[in-house]
Each structure stands twice: as structure tokens, then as C-alpha cells.
Amino acid sequence: MNRIYPKELLIKQLNEYKGILQETIINYLNSLIELEFSVVRDYISNSDRQALAELELYKNIAIYNIYNRAKTFFAKQNGNFIIAEDTGTVKRLGVSTKLGNRYVELFDFNYSEIIPNRWGGEYNIPVGFKTLKIGDISLFQTIESKEIKEAEMGRIMRKLERLYASKNPYRSCKIGPGACWEVDHENEIKEYEAQFQKLDSKKELSDKDKREIEITRKIYNLLLEDLGLKDESFDEFLPDYGLEPTVLKKTLVKRMPNLTIKNNINYI
């Protein structure tokens, strides 16, 4: 069972490694427990981090550090934040804020004992097995970009042109699969036309859009500072395995041993 271990238990477990681990490493791990800095920061070498990643103790301390530093971080910020913790089988800490009738994500830490698959689903860890996976940290930012918006409109128009030109492969069959294809085809055209119309009609940002950009950018920058990261830290594109991926959303990642940090960008 993956959970947040109490501080006292982590300290007790750490003391059992005295004489096994170097004193500098013991002090480093103790500082993580005391929440003096984020486990993401480069306070140790890559080789030391890779070695520590083989220890379940390090996983438990890292989860404790990320989870509690995030809660402390948002407690210090001015704003109405919605905190979601451990929903069902998913072990996570999610933070969002409400703007009008929509919720805007600001932070997420998923520390479930699961392995993601390439289709966006997840594999559960078999009973009796343990994983050293720390989890996934997700950051979010909303950015205004007319260029990206135009690129998305171009993508939708090309899709519509293909839909307009496509012929029913079951056109000789007026019922069954032929009729189903016609309905699905018409609905898909309407969906993409509605998407295009929505983008085309939006000439200026609304006050809610501007507020979303302001809030997400502020929190994103502060979290980067807390984690010891920069925009340049994210240099690997996480592909979207959807059939029609939108260009209005992009995810960059930074990979560390047993930990992935995602930079989720929403363009408007």
C-alpha cells in the first residue's frame, strides 16, 4: 500500500541506515524529512541520486517531501485553492482553483503504485510486488498564443476537408453499418465545425481567460523556484497518443530516477 509515512517513522527508519550510508547522505535525507528543500533540487550528484533510487526508504522520504512541501507552499499563497487528496485507489494531491464555472488545475502529485501505459491507461502493480516509483509531479500554465490558435484552426480545417470528402464505405447498405456510419460521420463534422467556430469567433481574451493566465503563470513560476527548475529544465516532449491530438495542449517533461515532472501547457 502506497501512502504518506509519518515523520517519526521515517526518522526511525533513517536511523537504521546510520553506519551504512555516508553521513552526508544521512544528513541530506534528514533535511528532506524536515522539508528544508525540495527533493527535486540538485543538492546531490546524479550518481548519488541514482543509488538512492534503489532504496524504498528514499522513495518514502521523497513522497513525504513532495507532498508536504506542496501543502505548505499553497498554505502560504493568497488565493482560494481546492485541495484534493487520495481519491479512491488513486493516491494523489491535486490543487486547483475555480474561475466562474470552470476549474483550473495548478498542481498535481500522483504517487500511486501504478505504471502508465502508452495509451494513457495504467497497469496496477501485482500483489506481492513493490515499486520504487516515486510518482509524477504535474505543473500547469495557460499561455496566450495567436500563432498556436491559428495552427489549431488550420488543423481543424484540414480535418474537416477530409471529412467532407470521405465517402460512406457502406453506402450500398441503407441500414445497419451504413446508417451508423452516416450518423457518426455527421456528428463528427458538427463537432469539428463547432470547434472551428468557437476559435474563429473568439477575437479577444475574456476576463476569466486573463485571470487564468495570470494565476497559472504566477503559481507555475513560484513552483519552479521552489523545485529549483527553469523553463529550460523541460526538454522532452511527451507525445499524445490520441487519434487527433490538439496543438492547443502540449506537455514537456523532466525525468529523474523514479520521478517524472510534467509541464502541461494550455494555449488560448
What does this structure look like?
By secondary structure, this protein is α+β, with helices and mostly antiparallel strands. Helices cover 42% and strands 22% of the residues. The protein contains seven helices and nine strands. The protein has helices at 7-15, 23-33, 46-52, 56-75, 146-165, 177-201, 207-227; strands at residues 82-87, 90-99, 102-110, 114-116, 122-124, 135-143, 236-237, 249-256, 259-267. The strands form two sheets. The protein has a seven-stranded mixed beta sheet. A hairpin with a 2-residue loop joins strand 1 (82-87) and strand 2. Helix 1 runs antiparallel to helix 4 (56-75) and helix 5 (146-165) packs antiparallel against helix 6. The longest helix has 25 residues, at 177-201. It is elongated and about 80 Å long. It starts with 6 loop residues before the first helix and ends with a strand. The model has no long low-confidence stretch (mean pLDDT 91).
